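User: Can you help me understand a structure? I only have the sequence.
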Amino acid sequence: MIQETVFKSFDNQALLAEQLAERIANQLQEAVDTRGKASLVVSGGSTPLALFQLLSKKTIDWNDVYITLADERWVDNDHCDSNERLVSANLLQNRAASAKFCGLKNMYATPYEGQKMAIEQLTHFPKPFDVVVLGMGNDGHTCSWFPCASTEELTHALTTDDLCVAVTPGEAPHARISLSKAGILASRQIYLHIVGEQKLNVYRQALKNNTPGEMPIRAVLDQHKTPVDVYWSA
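Assistant: Let's start by predicting it. Here is the structure, written out as tokens:
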């Protein structure tokens, strides 16, 4: 059984977003104050939108904050499924408009061809990443580590030393590029942000054993390198 991480529950999603935005802002500013730069990795989906909007209004030295994505669908950045589009519209606004953002999608036709450039574009990011915010699917995936991907691709994502990997999910739409497990764990703090009873049940199921092939989120939960705080609300 996986040792349970720090788990924090909130009465509602608004309170969760408020508390998490404040904590992330404090950590980013502390990083800027201490090291001159800060780095933030965020995930897409609908869950973090309120968090992004609150965080964008925080008074911190955003021009010293570098932001990238945990994963991205290999679509143009104006596509409705683009995580870059979502982050631009909800996080890179207000005070956070001056942050230094670098997406993962580039000019190549496929993520397999574009993987090397994606890695190169992140070489200037402050590392280890100061804060990583992850989501989780009902199938236990996080980033673009899908249980429905080929065993070879999922194993590669969880074992390679490369920062980014290309993945084609078996069932989810679009080929993707994703940070690897090594890339995600090369961070000072990970937050798993989940809402709803179904996600809570998936999280509890993930804690029952350490087989990441069935539920890849276990690769994040079952490690002792990087602290993981789970923020949940109904």
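Now, to help you interpret it: The chain has eight helices and ten strands. The radius of gyration is 16 Å. Let me know which part you'd like to focus on.
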